[in-house]
Structures are given as C-alpha cells and as structure tokens.
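Marked as duplicate of an earlier ticket. Keeping the data here for the record.
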Amino acid sequence: DAQALCAHCGLDAAALRGEQPLPLTPCVALIETALARSGRPWLGLEVAAAAPVFSHGALAQAVAASSCLRE
C-alpha cells in the first residue's frame, strides 16, 4: 500500500505527484523501506526502466544524443 508506505516514512503520498521538491531524509527512508519490503534488490533498475528517459533533464538529453559513453 503506497499510502501506508509513505506515511511510515513521513511523506504525504499526494506530495509524490506534485511539482515541489521533497525532503531528502523521508525520501531516503521511502527508498530503503520499499527496497527492504519488496525483497527485490533490483528494484531501482525496475523504477529506472519505468521512468521516462527525459525525466532526468539535461543529463538524459546528453546521454540520448551520444553514440557512446565517451561522448
């Protein structure tokens, strides 16, 4: 339950959909708790795969425009 997980970590689930930055400490707690409860050490890879490529701003644009990591 996402709402219970957020409450456990001191976050309002509605804030995750907002545009305002979230405080670091509760976000770290959310990530660590979700990872521990999921039993899937690859959870971060699943989240990254589901995120839109350009959600990482300029870095994502640079990576998408490069043919290799050296560029």
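See parent ticket for discussion. The mean pLDDT is 88.
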